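Quick one, tokens below. Sequence please?
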């Protein structure tokens, strides 16, 4: 007997890994798509499977058949009387059980019915299908630390559960321009500001977002217009946008309480960190600059021994004192060529103040209490590196700001760990290839690379997480990406396919074949945040995003 939602019947030859079914007539012609999840009803067992291939057959359209001449002449063929059907290849995933999902130990039998996933069949589909632990259930459909993300591919409304507890293990988002990468990241952010904690409380994950193109500024504008206190679905304590000082002076920015200037405090860096930043800012690398770094460190020590309490103040208030102590390095055994190189590096570094006012501006970022504030109050800080928030700012200066942020975050979270304090923060970085590039990427090096590598390898131990977003993942440092344990993969460039397959630990062939053809907004989700041990294809419905993006909208025709 064919049941409700049946789409096919299992044919002979199934194994514990794969099976073939013939689709019912009602399920043909695109009703079932490659990548969809289905269920095989095999006696008392329910086997979750994925469609890996669909093969339409028609007896009147085979090579060398009696109808070859008719087709050659373009004559009509009586298709209605032809033997025709569609075969569906299935990849068998797990055996679904109310107690626990388990490996498939016996293949489905010929004649077993294949059905679509129907949440109504399961009292709690999150537990029965996606292995969400029962003890996380707060109420029907609501689970502690579980966010509902998009809809399972091929279904109108079947959200997949993602486990927030796995965020500290880092995540990455890949996708070419136009694939829906930024839209879906915004959707993920909306989920992370409203995480179920218990039956009376939802919480927000603290976040710092490096916004390369202004994709997330709509959230600041939305909160500015509506007032955070009037938005029940946002559980963040605050949301702020940070822009460069040279644009912050404009009245429209200063009037908004949600807009703050970017500033850096050199006194929050140790001497080695500061010396390496100065050298890298000038020449792009520290390779071959060991003597210059040593000289800078020694000059800083001499300044401290002379009774100066703040290096930061000297960098923008009294550069002559800095130069004086650098010149004294000749008495410390440093060569004149090294001293000249150090002075050249310092002159370039002074641009931070002379050109951008990053040292003198009053900014919340100049105190490590900013990290206390954002983690205590579950805030969201959007660092605006777009053309509007950072006009005329070169990449190496953006890299320096990134290095500064990564350094104070790493140092502060290390301090939390040593003091037995548990805090969490997600550091979201758009255009990650600009800040932790692979050696093959044209920018060659990045100021922030070493600190981001440290966060990638050690941050998970104390709650500091990375979310790396890139349209060219093969240009992102492979070691840093290898530390990511959850991936949201949109349509990618053909040149990146092999890299994506490698860094994610492999994808089923049925999904790997679709990497370059995924629809806009369609995403393959795989890794630790997924509550099942296999990738899922998810579609993010546009109407589910609460804050509609405006970036990228054009009115070309209207203005011609």
């Amino acid at each position: 007997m064919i049941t409700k939602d049946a789409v096919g019947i299992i044919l002979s030859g199934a194994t514990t890994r794969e099976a073939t079914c013939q689709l019912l007539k009602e399920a043909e012609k695109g009703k079932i798509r490659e990548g969809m999840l289905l269920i095989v009803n095999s006696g008392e067992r329910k086997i979750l499977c994925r469609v890996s291939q669909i093969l339409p057959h028609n007896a009147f359209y085979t090579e060398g058949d009696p109808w070859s001449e008719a087709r050659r002449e373009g004559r009509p063929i009586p298709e209605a009387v032809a033997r025709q059907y569609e075969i569906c290849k299935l990849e068998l995933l797990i055996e679904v059980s109310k107690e626990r999902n388990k490996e498939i130990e016996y293949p489905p039998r010929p004649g077993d019915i294949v059905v679509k996933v129907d949440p109504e069949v399961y009292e709690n589909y999150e537990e029965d299908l996606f292995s969400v632990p029962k003890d996380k259930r707060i109420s029907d459909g609501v689970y502690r630390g579980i966010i509902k993300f998009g809809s399972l591919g091929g279904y109108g409304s079947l959200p997949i559960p993602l486990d927030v507890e796995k965020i500290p293990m880092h995540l990455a988002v890949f996708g070419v321009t136009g694939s829906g990468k930024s839209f879906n990241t915004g959707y993920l952010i909306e989920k992370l500001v409203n995480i179920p904690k218990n039956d009376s409380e939802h919480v927000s994950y603290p976040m710092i977002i490096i916004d390369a193109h202004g994709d997330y500024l709509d959230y600041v504008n939305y909160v500015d217009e509506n007032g955070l206190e009037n938005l029940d679905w946002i559980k963040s304590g605050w949301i702020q946008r940070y822009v460069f000082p040279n644009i912050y002076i404009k009245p429209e920015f200063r009037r908004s309480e949600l807009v703050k200037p970017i500033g850096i405090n050199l006194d929050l860096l140790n001497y080695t960190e500061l010396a390496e930043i100065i050298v890298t800012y000038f020449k792009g690398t520290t390779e071959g600059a060991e003597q210059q770094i040593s000289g800078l460190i020694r000059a800083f020590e001499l300044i401290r021994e002379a009774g100066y309490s703040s290096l930061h103040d000297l960098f923008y208030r009294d550069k002559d004192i800095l130069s004086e102590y650098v010149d004294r390095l000749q008495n410390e055994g440093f060569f004149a060529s090294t001293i000249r190189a150090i002075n050249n590096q310092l002159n370039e570094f002074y641009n931070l103040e002379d050109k951008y006012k990053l040292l003198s501006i009053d900014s919340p970022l100049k105190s490590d209490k900013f990290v206390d504030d954002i983690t205590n109050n579950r805030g969201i800080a959007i660092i605006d590196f777009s053309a509007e928030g950072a006009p005329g700012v070169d990449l190496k200066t953006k890299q320096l700001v990134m290095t500064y942020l990564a350094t104070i975050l790493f140092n502060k979270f290390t301090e939390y760990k040593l003091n037995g304090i548990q805090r969490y923060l997600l550091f979201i970085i758009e255009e990650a290839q600009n800040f932790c590039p692979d050696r093959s990427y044209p920018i060659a090096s990045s100021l922030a690379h070493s600190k981001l590598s440290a966060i990638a390898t050690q941050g998970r131990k104390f709650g500091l997480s990375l979310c790396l977003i890139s349209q060219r993942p093969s240009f992102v440092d492979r070691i840093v990406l290898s530390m990511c344990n959850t991936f949201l993969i949109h349509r990618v460039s053909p040149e990146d396919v092999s890299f994506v397959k490698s860094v994610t630990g492999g994808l089923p062939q049925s999904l790997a074949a679709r990497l370059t053809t995924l629809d806009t907004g369609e995403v393959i989700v795989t890794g630790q945040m997924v509550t099942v041990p296999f990738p899922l294809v998810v579609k993010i419905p546009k109407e589910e995003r609460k804050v509609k993006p405006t970036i990228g909208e054009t009115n070309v025709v209207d203005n011609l």
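Residues 171-263+361-489 form a domain with the Rossmann fold fold (CATH 3.40.50.300). The two ends are 62 Å apart (CA to CA).
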